[in-house]
């Protein structure tokens, strides 16, 4: 196994990109990643693209070949990776495996979703496919509904409050104001979250990540030749993944995601690090409760302690641990296939010291945590600054 | 001799008051309540239809009967509001009650009396040992055109009877049955039409009363019984008034029909109506008591039954929810919610 | 007009009657049905078992923004029900005027879940109702 580094990153602004199609978005992020790495499309040996539901969102399957063509890649193998909202993180892991194994040297990893070409109701239905279609969605249990069920139970078992959940949204919106790629560059208050439109009790609309368009891309290379392309390669210390039951009800506990815990433990083991070594983390806050679960499952806080810690500012920008500096899924936006790759882009910016107004000072080690569905898939990456 | 092995019913818990419907159409609630002898009617929830009501009633009847559903040889569902025009409700019910596959099933339609036609079919089938048990259900979510007089009464509900012939398993014996049938167009709904049409006052004398009276009298002739031989009588009840008048015409007292007269409280459950009335009586009857049941279906016909309660009723008492409990469990809705529940207004 | 119906038909026993699986070896019950026991792996047989439908509310939520097929019926309550046989299942919880909270006892009812438009199939399904 070879060490792998990120040598280039690219990102589009997330949001309602009315004027841009799926291929426009991927081209924008892809070109910017190629430019950042100082390479040409002809240099790329393979593409892994994370897309969750292009068939339902824009009626297009067979996306990887389309993107390879649009990005000017040269008849290379291109593979679509689908793991619901963890499609991007999983694509990154597939790219990592391809380079680490020695099969390819220069690999492009993309993530994209175009979600606003359908109605909100159609989008809700499409996202529901991340859960168990037969036994969850077919009974009217929406995707926010699944996280609402987790939130309700977490509140029951640990006394977590709606105010504490709202604090996650407030923090992430504040971070998003400092990110030019973010969908919501607007501060919100606890009261605004609590008084926003109910979606699936106890979750309100401001507890939920939005429907977004956007794309992200990274270029991977073996660490030993990375400096040929960049002065600031970011090393991938760990790339891990785990699964759990698709159907939420079938899990022993729903106050945590076992897939996250397992992927997290494996990542710590692979890197030889512990939670306290992480300086900055992008975690999967598709709903506010999800960030609370992630903080506990990844070992940053004891079970039941994260909500209070977050609401007291312990994960704010440049606090003990900076979490979701990009604004997270909540503030930056959540074009589902793009999210896992965007997390790696954000951490790379942080480790390179390029995160501008939201820079975590002295960031050496960063983590990304990408979840599919209600936690049936979790992907964790630990990245390290090398310069 | 064929008898009732178990019974069960189901009444949706939503209700709309006469006052609320009258408010919308600027009519005088008091005179309607008096004229129709009705106070409110049951309304199905958005997720209820004649099939779900039939299943709930049949499940209650099965629990009450204590029989193994795999021994059911026939399932008949009588309704004028079958959810599908083509595709049987009866197969949905058979599957949902866990009946086996070696059975016959069919949907019946005869306005408000299709369920009692099912009783007669099952009597023949069990008496002839063609089947061991059969279940017949009368279930409806009947439609009343907005603003029409029927809107005050057309309601939702259902009842199911398990029929068998082992006396030891029965809670009541069906001593005799008689029917009276003519081609009388008092009430109808054409294929594809959402609401029924009716002949107004023509539905009374030549429709309801003629058939109820003739069928009941035929039964008296056949059995030699007279009204005083029955503790209870149940007549089809399109409103609260008709059955009282029918009772008077035949020589029954108000007391005899009191327990089985549910329409004033829940409206006309159409195919469910006379069978629900019978279930309410059975909830209260003791061994040895006789019950007259005469249904009526527009179009038109009446089936009359002489039923005698047997010892088995005591053993099975309390196995299923009482009709009076279902009637008391209710939630009032306004006219807008009523329209929504009836799919008259939909989100587009 | 041709419309697909095999998908709903295939699972009708589970949808109507909560028929799940039981591992012949360890006795663990599952809903929905599965072919392989989580405890015993492949070296056992999975039998069909009907669940009683009785259980308690493990978690619940009122859905205010529904998926397309449920737009008429929102808001509605859904929940995870811990069945007395062991498995936890998700489902609709019918509003019968009784308060729904964690620990509320429920049983099943038979209702329409959704319909495939005006002319398509009606999907009947178990729902839960507070006792």
Description:
The complex is a heterotrimer of chains A (387), B (348) and C (131). With 387 residues, chain A is of the alpha/beta class. Chain A is built from 14 helices and twelve strands. Chain A has helices spanning 22-37, 54-57, 63-70, 87-100, 120-128, 143-158, 162-176, 190-194, 223-226, 258-271, 288-297, 306-311, 328-332, 336-352; strands spanning 4-11, 46-50, 78-81, 107-114, 198-200, 203-204, 213-222, 234-243, 280-282, 322-323, 365-372, 377-385. Chain A is globular. The two termini of chain A are 22 Å apart. Chain B has 348 residues and is of the alpha/beta class. Chain B has two domains: 3-170 and 321-341, Thiolase/Chalcone synthase (Peroxisomal Thiolase, Chain A, domain 1); 173-312, Peroxisomal Thiolase, Chain A, domain 1 (3-Layer(aba) Sandwich), CATH 3.40.47. Helix content of chain B is 34%, strand content 24%. Chain B is built from 13 helices and 14 strands. In chain B, the strands form three sheets. A nine-stranded mixed beta sheet of chain B has the order 5-4-6-7-1-8-13-12-11, sandwiched between helices. In chain B, a hairpin with an 8-residue loop joins β9 and β10 (197-198). In chain B, α6 (204-223) crosses α7. In chain B, 57% of the residues are buried. The model of chain B has no long low-confidence stretch (mean pLDDT 97). In chain C, the strands form two sheets. Chain C has a five-stranded antiparallel beta sheet with strand order 6-5-4-7-8. Chain C has a three-stranded antiparallel beta sheet with strand order 2-1-3. Chain C contains two helices and eight strands. Chain C is flat and about 45 Å long. Chain C is mainly beta and 131 residues long. Chain C has one domain (6-130). The model of chain C has no long low-confidence stretch (mean pLDDT 95). The chains are: A alpha/beta (387), B alpha/beta (348), C mainly beta (131). Chain A binds chain C through residues 120-122, 124-125, 128, 134-142, 144-145, 148-150, 152-153, 156, 197-203, 247-250, 254, and chain C through 11, 30, 32, 58-71, 73, 76, 78-81, 87-92, 102, 113-114, 123, 125.
């Amino acid at each position: 196994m070879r060490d792998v580094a990120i040598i280039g990153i690219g990102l589009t602004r997330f949001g309602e990109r009315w004027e841009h199609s799926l291929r426009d978005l991927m081209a924008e992020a892809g070109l910017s990643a190629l430019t950042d790495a100082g390479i040409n499309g002809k240099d790329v040996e393979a593409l892994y693209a994370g897309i969750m539901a292009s068939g339902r969102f824009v009626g297009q399957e067979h996306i990887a070949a389309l993107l390879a063509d649009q990005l000017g890649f040269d008849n290379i193998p291109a593979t679509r990776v689908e793991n619901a909202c963890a499609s991007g993180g999983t694509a990154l892991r597939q790219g990592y495996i391809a380079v680490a194994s020695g099969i390819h040297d220069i690999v492009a990893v993309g993530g994209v979703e175009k979600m606003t070409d359908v109605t909100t109701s159609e989008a809700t239905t499409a996202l529901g496919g991340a859960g168990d279609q037969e036994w969850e969605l077919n009974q009217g249990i929406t995707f926010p509904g699944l996280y609402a069920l987790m939130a309700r139970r977490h509140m029951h078992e640990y006394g977590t409050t709606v105010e504490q959940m709202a604090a996650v949204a407030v923090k992430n919106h504040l971070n998003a104001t400092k990110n030019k790629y973010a969908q919501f560059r607007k501060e919100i208050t606890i009261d605004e979250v609590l008084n926003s439109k109910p979606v699936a009790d106890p979750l309100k609309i401001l507890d939920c990540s939005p429907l977004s368009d956007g794309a992200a891309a990274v270029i991977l290379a073996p660490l030993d030749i990375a400096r040929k392309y960049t002065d600031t390669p970011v090393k991938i210390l760990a790339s891990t993944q785990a699964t759990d039951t698709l159907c939420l009800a079938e899990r022993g506990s729903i106050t945590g995601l076992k897939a996250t815990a397992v992927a997290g433990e494996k990542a710590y083991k692979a890197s030889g690090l512990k939670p306290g070594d992480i300086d900055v983390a992008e975690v999967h806050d598709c709903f506010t409760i999800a960030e609370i679960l992630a903080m506990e499952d990844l070992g940053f806080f004891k079970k039941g302690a994260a909500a209070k810690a977050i609401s007291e500012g312990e994960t704010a920008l440049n606090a003990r641990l900076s979490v979701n500096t990009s604004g997270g899924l909540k503030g930056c936006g959540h074009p589902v296939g793009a999210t896992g790759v965007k997390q790696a882009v954000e951490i790379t910016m942080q480790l390179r010291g390029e995160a501008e107004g939201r820079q975590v000072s002295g960031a050496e080690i960063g983590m990304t945590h990408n979840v599919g569905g209600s936690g049936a898939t979790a992907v964790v990456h630990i990245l390290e600054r090398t310069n | 001799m064929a008898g009732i092995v178990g019974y069960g019913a189901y009444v949706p818990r939503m209700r709309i008051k006469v006052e609320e419907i009258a408010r919308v159409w600027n009519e005088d609630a008091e005179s309607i309540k008096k004229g129709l002898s009705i106070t409110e009617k049951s309304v199905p929830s958005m997720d209820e239809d004649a099939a779900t009501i039939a299943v709930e009633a049949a499940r209650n009847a099965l629990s009450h009967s204590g029989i193994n559903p795999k021994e059911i040889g026939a399932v008949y569902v009588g309704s004028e509001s079958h959810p599908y025009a083509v595709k049987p409700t009866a197969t949905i019910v058979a599957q949902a009650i866990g009946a086996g596959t070696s059975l016959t099933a069919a949907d019946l339609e005869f306005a408000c009396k299709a369920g009692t036609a099912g009783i007669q079919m099952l009597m023949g089938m069990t008496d002839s040992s063609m089947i061991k048990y059969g279940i017949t259900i009368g279930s409806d979510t009947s439609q009343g055109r907005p603003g029409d007089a029927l809107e005050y009464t057309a309601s939702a509900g259902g009842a199911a009877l398990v029929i068998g012939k082992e006396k030891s398993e029965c809670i009541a014996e069906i001593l005799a049955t008689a029917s009276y049938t003519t081609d009388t167009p008092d009430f109808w709904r054409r294929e594809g039409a959402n609401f029924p049409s009716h002949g107004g006052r023509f539905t009374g004398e030549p429709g309801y009363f003629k058939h109820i009276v003739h069928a009941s009298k035929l039964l008296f002739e056949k059995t030699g019984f007279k009204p005083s031989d029955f503790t209870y009588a149940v007549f089809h009840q399109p409103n609260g008034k008709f059955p009282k008048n029918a009772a008077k015409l035949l020589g029954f007292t108000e007391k005899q029909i009191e327990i089985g007269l549910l329409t004033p409280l829940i409206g006309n459950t159409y195919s469910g109506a006379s069978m629900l009335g019978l279930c309410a009586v059975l909830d209260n009857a003791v061994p040895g008591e006789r019950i007259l049941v005469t249904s009526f279906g527009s179009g038109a016909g009446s089936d009359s039954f002489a039923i005698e309660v047997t010892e088995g009723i005591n053993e099975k008492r309390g196995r299923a929810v009482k009709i009076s409990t279902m009637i008391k469990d209710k939630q009032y809705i306004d006219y807008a919610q009523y329209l929504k529940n009836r799919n008259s207004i939909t989100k587009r | 007009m041709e419309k697909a119906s095999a998908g709903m038909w295939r699972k009708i026993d589970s949808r109507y009657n909560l028929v799940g699986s039981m591992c012949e070896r360890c006795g663990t019950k599952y809903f929905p049905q599965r072919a392989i026991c989580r405890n015993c792996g492949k070296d056992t047989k999975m039998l069909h078992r009907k669940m009683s439908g009785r259980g308690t509310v493990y978690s619940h939520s009122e859905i205010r923004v529904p998926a397309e097929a449920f737009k008429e019926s929102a808001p509605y309550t859904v929940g995870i029900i811990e069945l007395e046989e062991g498995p936890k299942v998700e489902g609709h919880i019918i509003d019968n005027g009784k308060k729904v909270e964690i620990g509320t006892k429920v049983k099943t009812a038979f209702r329409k879940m959704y319909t495939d438009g005006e002319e398509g199939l009606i999907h009947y399904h178990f729902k839960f109702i507070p006792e």
